[in-house]
């Protein structure tokens, strides 16, 4: 089969087209012909950092985690899927799991679900990693109907899904963005947009919560921005973050009695730990998408499999609006 291979890592590393052996299906897995895959920040981190990142695969490596496609073969012990089923999932591209930048993938059936019927293959491929992350963060933070929820980075990959899921679960949603296009997208998704460049945390907390703070803050920006999340949260509030690889003074969180939830959605793939939970989340996300409450935003630029280097560059440029998708 055709695949795009990385033979080395580093900022100047480039993908090379190669013919590799089509993988054989094995028990508990399905062989999927990939129609589309999407690029996530973690993919670019792996390409740039290589073995400095503990989850990077050995070279030559096939990267890519998210995909949508059609089942072509079913392994022993798999009862939920049949040949011809359209599926989506996040199932490779790290550690010893070959990725999605190829014509086929053998994926653990626990990491999949049937593709939402109302989404295209391109749209479905954009969802798994970011949607599972948003889902886990909001659920672990105990989201409830009627809560005031703040999503940092609501026009980003994870953020734009978190806004939609929070709305679906009945919250009153607010979200930060830094430019006209970003703020317009946030409003389009049904949240109240906050320009973090022109409004201080103190100002928007006063404006939207009467100074009491948000009961739940979902921070898809993380790092130093976590201090803003602590400042924006209400007493005994919940803060969920997807980016916490940093040293941080937790004193503000202490004096507010905050609960901090760190989401690292790659754990099931990396450690073969409760993988069926991801399949269950993807099934629920399909129901939510089919109800009309969740639709991924795709970047306007399209890329073929051979253009994966350009797709990585597009994501890294910061100019993409929505998910960057590759047509396999």
TrEMBL record:
Organism domain of life: Bacteria
Classification via SMART domains: PKS_ER
Subunit structure: Homotetramer.
Domain Enoyl reductase (ER): residue ranges: 10-326
Signal peptide: none
UniProt key word NADP: yes
Localization terms from the record: Cytoplasm
Entry keyword NADP: yes
SUPFAM superfamilies: GroES-like (SSF50129), NAD(P)-binding Rossmann-fold domains (SSF51735)
A Pfam family of this chain: ADH_N
Name of the protein in question: Zinc-dependent alcohol dehydrogenase family protein
Keywords annotated in UniProt: Cytoplasm, NADP, RNA-binding
